[in-house]
């Protein structure tokens, strides 16, 4: 008996204790943690934000309750100031918030079941990169059945040719594809020539193509040709060239030698030899001289400061030849020179992200699905649920009677309602509130467009479906805040964020830019922070053609003024000579670094990979000195903004004094120990 009673008490306690703890937490949530100005902040208000932005997020350095409390109070003071200034009342603010709210509402207007299926499908597809070619037979998405059948039969005929033994898919794409990129484009007065891709779309993965095309490609095995796949563009015959493990986000560096795709063969041969020589020099040093060779040879000037590193990219963002090279490498390896339509690339793979676990990828995939056409599946399910929840009732009799009055003027974008149309008749109702024909007529006038392939009744029904679905979804959207507290909180968070951005721009960022006198005074007070290192003022002369070298040296030996060298070279038609000058710190230029920094020194540096020569003339050497405001404006402005914000926050603390309930704060500290 005693044992039985003990068990009963234990089981009873297991139900009671969580309730007691939950009740205690609920009481703590309601307690006032602090007062800012005349505004009370409850424990729940603080803890919700602390948990979301500090504990739940992926921040590297987690902050303690006390550290975060300071950030939170500063944020709340800024928001209160924005509200005092009524920054949330402007039309610009209201439009911006409405745009964000529309995006935030999407997850709440989708079906979880369908979304989960789409996320799982997207994750499986994300595991692979596909390279495919296609032949497009165009067909308007609203084409008449007869025209649709005609396009389908043409696509089937082309597919039959592609399936024949020995068929050249690229040649068939050149001949039959109605995708302009297949055939390329000749040069015009407004644009350069563009080579055709012969149907080759390069590499892609999930979300890179329209959903029907993506599905057709992922359902086709490597080396095989799909049945015609219908998209809004028409019918696609897809040939999958390769299916490989996904690289994810790719980080790579390159040495780029620019060359037009239609360059003469002798130029191509010379550039290929130069690329091979650079690659050989890299391999002689096991690639340890990569940064030097980038500075010395690359034509991609924007990446020199990053040792040739490109911004991270995915397989669909770079030409397929570049991706092929990356796929052949391990991190740290360098590929042999690769020819693309832009020139030659020597590629060094830095890293690839691959594909994360499902749990880590899930949120990102869900966000992409919201913006993708596949989300319509989920929207259709939500529409059905919303109609049921808000008691949608359609009056089929009134709808059919109205549609019968619509004539062909609607196809010419000239519709006016017939005298026979009962504009006061109800088409449908939501929670008992009717929507009349007159409202649909107004919608038609605003949204009709010229049509060629449909009947008046068919087009009217299409417009009605968009009209009625729009009203139903708008009705549901208007009730999101009361239905989902978390959505209401999210919208408030964005509202605060927009106000804060506008306020910071007004009080700190824009102010620092416009306050020229304050900026100058700040620079003078802190001038020692903005210093140049040792610098050499040098003229760098690159002579690409060997026959021009003696002519340039003769000019230099003759004591020519270096500032007039460029004009003299142009006047005397000395080919292949490029002159630039400027101040250089150590590391800014490989050729200047190889030259002794002494006024009057002239250093001749022959290339080891082609027939060019670089001459460096040192004209001035300067010791470390302070930068002028013009030279350091970006950094000075940034630092001045920090000072302005510190002063502004100090004034806010005076306007909105903070009082903290230490006893309640101690409970919160214990909660997050």
Folded structure, characterized:
With 673 residues, this protein is α+β, with helices and mostly antiparallel strands. 50% of the residues lie in helices and 17% in strands. It is globular. The two termini are 42 Å apart. Residues 1-22 have low confidence and may be disordered.
Measured as a percent range, the helix fraction is 40-55%
Major sheet summary line:
4 strands, antiparallel
DSSP helical segment count: 25
Average pLDDT:
91
What is the topology, as strand order, of the major beta sheet? 4-3-6-5
Structural class: alpha+beta
Overall 3D geometry? Answer: globular
- Low-confidence regions: 1-22
Number of strands: 19
Task: Name the descriptors.
673 residues, alpha+beta, four-stranded antiparallel sheet, 50% helix, globular
Question: Layout of helices and strands, plus pairs?
Answer:
Layout: H1 2-30, E1 32-36, E2 39-42, H2 43-55, H3 65-84, H4 91-105, H5 112-126, E3 128-138, H6 145-163, H7 169-176, H8 180-183, E4 200-204, H9 211-218, E5 229-231, E6 234-245, E7 250-258, H10 265-284, H11 290-297, H12 320-327, E8 338-340, E9 343-352, H13 358-371, H14 375-389, E10 393-394, H15 396-403, E11 426-430, E12 433-436, H16 437-447, H17 456-478, H18 480-483, H19 485-514, H20 516-525, E13 531-532, E14 535-543, H21 549-557, H22 565-571, E15 577-584, H23 590-593, E16 602-606, E17 613-622, E18 625-626, H24 629-655, E19 658-660, H25 662-671
Antiparallel strand pairs: 1-2, 1-19, 3-4, 3-6, 5-6, 7-9, 8-9, 10-11, 11-12, 13-18, 14-15, 14-17, 16-17
Helix pairs in contact: 2-3, 3-19, 4-19, 5-13, 5-14, 16-17, 19-24, 20-24
């Amino acid at each position: 008996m005693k044992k039985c009673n003990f068990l009963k008490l234990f089981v009873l306690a297991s139900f009671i204790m969580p309730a007691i703890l939950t009740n205690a937490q609920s009481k703590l949530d309601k307690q006032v943690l602090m007062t800012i100005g005349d505004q009370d902040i409850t424990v729940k208000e603080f803890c919700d934000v602390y948990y979301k932005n500090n504990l739940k997020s992926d921040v590297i350095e987690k902050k303690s309750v006390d550290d975060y409390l300071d950030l939170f109070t500063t944020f709340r003071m800024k928001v209160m100031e924005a509200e005092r200034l009524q920054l949330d009342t402007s039309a610009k603010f209201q439009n911006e918030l409405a745009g964000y709210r529309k995006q935030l509402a999407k997850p709440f207007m989708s079906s979880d079941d369908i979304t989960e299926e789409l996320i799982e499908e997207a994750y499986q597809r994300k595991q692979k990169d596909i390279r495919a070619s296609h032949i497009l037979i165009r067909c308007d998405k609203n084409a008449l059945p007869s025209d649709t059948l005609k396009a389908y039969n043409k696509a089937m005929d082309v597919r039959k040719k592609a399936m024949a033994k020995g068929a050249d898919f690229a040649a068939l794409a050149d001949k039959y594809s109605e995708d302009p990129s297949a055939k390329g484009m000749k040069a015009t007065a407004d644009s350069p020539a563009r080579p055709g891709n012969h149907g080759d779309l390069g590499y892609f993965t999930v979300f890179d193509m329209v959903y029907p095309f993506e599905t057709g490609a992922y359902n086709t095995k490597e080396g095989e040709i799909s049945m015609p796949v219908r998209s809004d563009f028409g019918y696609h015959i897809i040939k999958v060239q390769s299916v490989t493990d996904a690289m994810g986000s790719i980080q790579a560096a390159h040495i780029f030698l620019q060359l037009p795709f239609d360059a003469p063969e002798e130029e191509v041969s010379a550039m290929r030899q130069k690329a091979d020589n650079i690659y050989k020099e890299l391999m002689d040093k096991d690639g340890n001289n990569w940064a030097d060779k980038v500075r010395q040879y690359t034509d991609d000037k924007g990446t020199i400061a990053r040792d040739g590193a490109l911004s991270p990219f995915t397989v669909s963002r770079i030409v397929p030849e570049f991706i092929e090279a990356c796929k052949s490498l391990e991190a740290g390896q360098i590929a042999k020179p690769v020819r693309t339509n832009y020139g030659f690339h020597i590629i060094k793979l830095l890293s690839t992200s691959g594909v994360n676990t499902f749990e880590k990828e899930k949120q990102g995939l869900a966000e992409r699905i919201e913006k993708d056409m596949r989300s319509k599946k989920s929207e259709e399910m939500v529409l059905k649920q919303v109609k049921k929840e808000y008691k949608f009732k359609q009056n089929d009799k009134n709808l059919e009677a109205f549609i019968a009055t619509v004539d062909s003027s609607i196809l010419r974008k000239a519709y006016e309602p017939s005298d026979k149309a009962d504009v006061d008749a109800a088409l449908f109702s939501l929670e008992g509130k009717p929507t009349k024909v007159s409202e649909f007529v107004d919608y038609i006038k605003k949204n009709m467009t010229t049509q060629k392939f449909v009947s008046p009744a068919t087009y009217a029904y299409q417009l009605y479906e968009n009209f009625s679905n729009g009203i139903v979804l708008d009705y549901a959207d208007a009730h999101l805040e009361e239905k989902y507290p978390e959505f209401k909180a999210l919208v408030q968070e964005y509202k605060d964020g927009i106000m804060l951005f506008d306020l910071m721009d007004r009080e700190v960022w824009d102010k620092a830019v416009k306050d020229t006198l304050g900026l100058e005074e700040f620079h003078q007070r802190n001038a020692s922070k903005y210093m140049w290192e040792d610098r050499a003022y040098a003229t760098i002369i690159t002579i690409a053609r060997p026959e021009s070298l003696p002519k340039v040296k003769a000019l230099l030996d003759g004591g020519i003024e270096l500032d007039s060298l460029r004009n003299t070279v142009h006047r005397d038609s000395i080919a292949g000579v490029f002159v630039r000058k400027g101040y250089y710190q150590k590391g800014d230029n490989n050729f200047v670094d190889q030259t002794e920094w002494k006024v009057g020194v002239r250093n001749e540096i022959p290339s080891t990979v082609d027939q060019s020569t670089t001459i460096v003339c040192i004209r001035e050497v300067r010791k470390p000195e302070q930068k002028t405001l013009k030279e350091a404006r970006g950094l000075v402005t940034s630092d001045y903004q920090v000072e302005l914000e510190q002063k502004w926050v100090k004034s806010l603390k005076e306007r909105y004094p903070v009082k903290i309930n230490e006893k309640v704060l101690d409970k919160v500290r214990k909660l997050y120990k």
